[in-house]
Amino acid sequence: MSKAKAPMLWLALALAVSSCKKEETALIADDHFLLNVPNNMPAWVDDIENPLTTTGVKLGRLLFYDKRLSGNNQISCASCHQQDLAFSDGVALNNIGVSKQPLHRHAPALFNLLWANNGLFWDGGSTNLESQAFGPLTAFDEMGQDLNALEVELKAVPEYRTLFEQAFKNGITSANVVKALAQFQRTLISANSRYDKYKRKEGVVLNAHEMAGLALVEQKCKSCHAGELFTDNAYHNNGLDQSFSNEHEGIHQGRFRVSYQAADLGAFKTPSLRNVMLSAPYMHDGRFKNIDQVLDHYSEELKPSATVDKALFQNNGQLGIPLSLAEKNAVKAFLTTLTDEEFIHNKNFSNPY
């Protein structure tokens, strides 16, 4: 979920969740959720302080689609994270929040968060999914919810009372709301694209054009879009800008606003290439409308600055990743093989209401 002009309150709430996690672990020992992770994906470790449970995942899914989580009861998490768009929203800067003001950052796609172990938000300002959720929940430009009022609303729903009592020792609390949301989001695994089936030798063959694109991605893009996740979960200045304003609490400065390390100025988190053909527009501010603009940026339009990532100096030491028109078309052909149709139609992830 994106974060824009969020109140500082969420930081305190995030710390509260972190400090009380161990006291609120799931109750039912035999309620462990069996997560199906295909064998070409990395190894994973369940969160010891918020382990996946069947009840917790079910509860998180209900909450993800419930508009009661917003202050005006008109917006759910799914309003900005739509399954058919790989849980992205299809617009550059959304303005459907409580304030009706446009956000300053683009809502990212949500999948494979099970492996998101190096910070969340575009700048890594949150350390885990539990604390991250407080940002959009409380931000006036997003869901604008008073957390005490939310607890009262949820306690008025018999099904929620039952599920919370089964999943957590102390029932309905705002901390347990975000824990349930985190459990559901960790089940959003996308690993059944044509590329995956090709890798697992499940009867899928990539054509010559797609294979040429795969080779180009391996050669020119894997320094950031690494491994089977197609992201290194790290932060890079990818040559979008030459100056970095400190307006709006410094959100245009990227990772620097969190780390205060000069090398992080203008560095934003690497998004996965998986489902990339579904998740336009692109970049942290949604400035590129289509994948062609993205490829043109990397090959011809990178802007120099002191912190531009060294991996982008590929053109005989010059800034830029050389790509001919034919090569760009091959890359696009390969990127289509990363679209996971099973993921975007999986009924376990869809609106339960």
Verbal overview:
The structure is a single chain. Residues 1-12 have low confidence and may be disordered. The chain has a two-stranded antiparallel ribbon. It is built from 15 helices and two strands. Helix 2 runs antiparallel to helix 7 (158-167) and helix 2 packs across helix 8 (174-186). 34% of the residues lie in helices and 1% in strands. The chain has two domains: 9-190 and 342-349, Cytochrome c-like domain (Cytochrome Bc1 Complex, Chain D, domain 2, Orthogonal Bundle); 194-340, Cytochrome c-like domain (Cytochrome Bc1 Complex, Chain D, domain 2), CATH 1.10.760.10. The chain has helices at 9-20, 54-64, 77-80, 129-132, 134-138, 147-155, 158-167, 174-186, 194-199, 208-220, 247-250, 256-259, 291-300, 325-336, 341-344; strands at residues 235-236, 268-269. By secondary structure, it is mainly α. Keywords: Oxidoreductase, Peroxidase, Signal. Its main location: other.
What keyword list fits this structure?
353 residues, mainly alpha, Cytochrome Bc1 Complex, Chain D, domain 2, two-stranded antiparallel sheet, 34% helix, globular, disordered N terminus, Cyt_c-like_dom_sf
Ranges with pLDDT <50 over ≥5 residues? 1-12
Principal-axes shape call: globular
What is the percent of helical residues?
Answer: 25-40%
What is the helix tally?
15
What count of structural domains? 2
Mean pLDDT: 92
Tell me the major beta sheet.
2 strands, antiparallel
Succession of helices and strands: HHHHHHHHHHEHHEHHH
CATH 2nd-level architecture of the largest domain? Orthogonal Bundle
- The total strand number stands at 2
Structural class: mainly alpha
The CATH superfamily of the largest domain is Cytochrome c-like domain
Which CATH first-tier class of the largest domain would you pick? Mainly Alpha
Strand line-up across the major sheet: 1-2
- Determine the oligomeric state from the structure: single chain
Radius of gyration: 20 Å
